[in-house]
């Protein structure tokens, strides 16, 4: 049974449509073993609560840093066949795509966790690959990645809206309408968004910036608890005006 980590303090709480129950996760970062655990939690909760519409929302950064990006994508692709899943793009998926198009970016990607992704596909780059090795490694990675993985990454969305909730990887730029947000901000923004107390028009659910425990604040919820470093992958459930983080 799901239990609250922290309750939402607002007197005017954001609300989902009647009968909808959302399960949200962010920043899995190759932690396939933690993802499997949380999927069991979701399945048990759905069996117990029997919502009319159960929607799973995954908010990006599926790859890099953790031990098994390949298995993580396999699990998510298999989960997508249920038809009630939404997959958003994270900045690490963008980085991976950029490297596949431009091998010169490989050293920078390896430095931010791409090494673990390459290893999960059976590749072992040197500590400082030269230009020739960079091109060879990226070619080998593209060949090693199953077509389904490349298609999955290509189809990722930037945002998802349901009721009063707006789901996104990193956040939004204050003062800019949600419909006019730029992709760079949606995937990368930090301080300007995190320090803002304004009402964004929707309640923002995001990850991207690790926190020790889930933050369910007046205008936003941050559920990135640094799974690859802490072993804690947070699941947020929302139904009606209730939000529970485990």
From TrEMBL:
InterPro entries recorded: Ap4A_hydrolase (IPR050126), Calcineurin-like_PHP (IPR004843), Metallo-depent_PP-like (IPR029052)
CDD domains found in the cross-reference section: MPP_PPP_family
SUPFAM superfamilies, alphabetized: Metallo-dependent phosphatases
Gene3D superfamilies with a match to the protein in the record: 3.60.21.10
GO molecular function: bis(5'-nucleosyl)-tetraphosphatase (symmetrical) activity; phosphatase activity
GO biological process, one term: RNA decapping
Calcineurin-like phosphoesterase domain: residues covered: 21-212
Pfam name, any one: Metallophos
GO cellular component, one term: cytoplasm
Protein name, UniProt field: Metallophosphoesterase
């Amino acid at each position: 049974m799901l239990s609250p980590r922290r309750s939402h303090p607002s007197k005017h709480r954001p609300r989902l449509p009647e009968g909808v129950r959302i399960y949200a996760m962010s920043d899995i970062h190759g932690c396939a073993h933690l993802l499997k655990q949380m999927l069991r939690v979701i399945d048990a909760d759905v069996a117990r609560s029997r919502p009319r519409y159960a929607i799973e929302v995954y908010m990006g950064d599926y790859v890099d840093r953790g031990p098994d990006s390949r298995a993580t994508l396999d699990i998510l692709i298999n989960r997508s066949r249920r038809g009630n899943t939404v997959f958003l793009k994270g900045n690490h998926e963008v980085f991976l795509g950029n490297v596949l198009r431009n091998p010169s970016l490989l050293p920078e990607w390896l430095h931010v966790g791409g090494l673990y992704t390459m290893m999960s596909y059976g590749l072992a780059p040197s500590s400082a690959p030269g230009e020739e090795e960079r091109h060879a490694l990226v070619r080998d990675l593209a060949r090693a990645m199953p077509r389904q993985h490349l298609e999955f990454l290509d189809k990722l969305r930037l945002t998802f809206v349901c009721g009063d909730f707006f789901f996104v990887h990193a956040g939004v730029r204050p003062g800019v309408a949600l419909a006019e947000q730029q992709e760079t901000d949606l995937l990368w923004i930090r301080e300007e968004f995190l320090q803002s107390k304004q009402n964004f028009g929707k309640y923002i659910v995001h990850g991207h910036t690790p926190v020790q425990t889930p933050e369910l604040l007046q205008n936003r919820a941050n559920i990135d608890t640094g799974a690859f470093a802490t072993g804690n992958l947070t699941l947020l459930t929302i139904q009606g005006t209730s939000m529970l983080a485990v």
